[in-house]
Amino acid sequence: MKKIRLILVALFIVLGIELSTNNIQAHASSSTTTPKSLRGTWYKYTGSGKFSTIKITKHSLTYNGTVYSPSKSGSHKLKVSKWGSWYSFNKGSSTSNLGQFKTEKRLIKGSYKKSLVRYGNIGTYYVFTHHKYHHDYSFKVLD
Counting CB atoms within 10 angstroms of each CB, which of 23, 47, 74, 91 has the fewest? Predict the structure, then answer.
């Protein structure tokens, strides 16, 4: 019984040393470079033949004509952060928080196509596509 207890104590000491020497990586990172998977021009049908547009380049984001980039100042200065599979633009800024984005395959016109999903209010997801489809593919998960 003493040998088992001694082995367990030694094991806990080794695990403690191992955990204390490992670098712990943060779950969120921040930069001014947008991920390649989100880049491009994205459209969402808003009705009456009109579209909401998001254009994402390496160092800028244009949302309905408003440009956000690292070279701008104030609320138009671009900041990109990641949490899990979601990317946030200007997170923490109450005046220019652009929301959370990720890409995923969505069923559009009978086949799965790459789309940009923007998380909106509680349970609302806005779906943007690379092509102008005259249909809004946005959805809600909570009603």
Answer: 23
